[in-house]
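Hi P.,

Sorry for the delay on this. The queue was packed all week, but I finally got your sequence through. Input first:
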Amino acid sequence: MATTKKIPMRQCVGCGEMKAKKDMIRVIRTTEGEITLDATGRKNGRGAYICVDSACLAKAEKNRGLSRSLKTEIPPEIYEELKKEMLEIETR
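Then the structure:
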């Protein structure tokens, strides 16, 4: 009797698609209020998931999906830093 392992699914705050958790990147707001990308998915803080695609990050910025999910206002400088980090991850 083989059991199938459940795959955790998360919704992208940019495009709204449900994808496997391991195929996405977690954006977190730490208790200090710092907003960073969490490629490991293990850091402490309030998290939101986004596809590994700079287009999804642009959509999340436009529709304010990250601000809603992280329950804080995100300044434009943070989006610029996230875009740079996303490009590094995409090129790996």
